[in-house]
Amino acid sequence: MLFTTVSKLQADYILEVSRIPDFLSKMVAKYPITISNFTYPGQQHNRLFEAEYDHIKPGDTCYDYNASRLMTRPTRVGNNPLIYYGLIASDNQIIKHDGTRDQLARELGILYFKTEAAG
Fold first, then answer.
1. CA angle 44, 49, 54 (to 5 degrees)
2. Which residue, among 62, 109, 60, 66, has the nearest Cα to 88 in the 3D structure?
3. Burial of 3 (0-12, 13-18, 19+ CB in 10 A)
4. b/e string for 68-96 if b means 16 or more Cβ within 10 A?
5. What is the pTM of this model?
6. Residue 119, helix vs strand vs coil
7. What is the pLDDT of residues 70-111, one digit of tens each?
8. Which of 98, 118, 23, 6 is nearest to 56 (CA)?
9. Is 4 a domain residue?
10. I need a surface site. Which of 11, 53, 90, 97 has the fewest CB within 10 A?
């Protein structure tokens, strides 16, 4: 039943205009405190580093790392959320080595790694 429901949601998302931006706008208008959690901060804050570039300083932000190791990506058209369907891996430990993360993603078809959901 869950698979059927997800398949229908996926088909609706492809075939119809997404209502997610409208839902988010109404939510932010009604609850302004949600702005920082549910609005797109802009592409300048979406930083992706090369997988081989290790982030080894605990507590640092991505702004503390070498900007020359940033990946170049095409400018995204629009700011509406995109939905991806696939596996989410959950554990109680952070994968600090990007090469290991990328290998697991390739071998197991994982789209996203999440630690907070492990509990």
1. 140
2. 109
3. exposed
4. eeeeeeeeeeeeeeeeeeeeebeeeeeee
5. 0.60
6. coil
7. 888 888 888 888 888 888 888 887 777 778 888 999 999 999
8. 98
9. no
10. 11
Tokens of 96: 């600090």
User: 118 lies in a domain?
Assistant: yes
Q: What are the pLDDT digits (tens) for 7-27?
A: 888 898 889 888 888 999 999
Tell which phi-psi region holds residue 42, choosing left (phi > 0), alpha (psi between -120 and 50) or beta.
left
CA distance 111 to 109: 6
Q: Per the structure block, which two tokens stand in for 82?
A: 């995109």
Q: Which amino acid, residue 63?
A: Y
Domains held by the chain: number = 1
